[in-house]
Design goal:
With 250 residues, the protein is an alpha/beta fold. The chain contains 8 helices and 8 strands. α1 crosses α2. The N terminus and C terminus are likely disordered.
Length: 250
Amino acid sequence: MSRSFDIPDRSEARADPFTPVASPAPRAPGASVRPISLVNRTPEHGEVLKLVQRIFILPGPSAAPRIVAFSGIEPGDGCSWVCIHAAHELAEQAAGTVCLVDANLRSPAFHEHFRLENGSDFASSPRTLPPPGEFVRKLPGRNFSLIGVDGADLDIASALNPLRMKSFMAGLRRQFDYTLVDTPALSICNDAVLLGQVADGIVLVVGSNSTRRETARIAKEGLRAANVPVLGAVLNKRTFPIPERLYRRL
């Protein structure tokens, strides 16, 4: 990973969680999430696995964060892709239960990507939320649970009310061992900061060929000012200098 994107200070990071990831090209709207093959992994899947191990597995169950927000620095950095695959890898590696939450209310993707039928939506529910279990969906063929939104007529300010979300996250903490939360890019709104404050910390997703160093620095300083721990950073969409089929053999 380029040293120019070592976003958190080493003193702030746990177990050197800085991992480069090269995700596939962005999916067209409505495209389904590419299934993960445990036999024929691509390099990007392997790097997501390393991220999961360094943040969640190596510290041990008593020290690992329980609720982690994922946010891109800028739109298009591939945060949703990283968050989805991190949930899969964590569910494979950890003994506990895993929940994936779509809290990118400005551009929700999971509802369509996982082809969910319309149902209860935590962001459209009343100000006082029922327990998280009311919104949890089990995904066929997946080993983690999902809480999604369909993006219709959302009152984002009410949905992300800090007291409301604090109570909701507390319920998730009681129900699941690990919760991964997908959030909007830091450069477009303050949602990721608000959600990071009720989580145990945040993982930043940085576009290798798009995110500017100054933009990343400003994002990090904003999180620090808001007392949001930065648990690690992912350099996403990195290009590999050798063909992928050869990279797999290294």
